Task: structure prediction
Amino acid sequence: MYHLKKNILETLNVSSPKDLHGTAFENHLSVLLNCTTALFSNLLGLIDSRAL
Result:
């Protein structure tokens, strides 16, 4: 389990779980905005395809 956790932290380029939490918190708004944009885009696509 330790190796998996270490690999995840290395992949995300953070040195500790505390840094991971900080990074996630800093990026939360950006991620939320990207997800909202993607969902809105998909919704518009569904509406457009049903209108035809």
Q: What stands out?
A: The radius of gyration is 18 Å. The chain has a mean pLDDT of 68. Residues 21 and 38 are 24 Å apart (CA to CA).
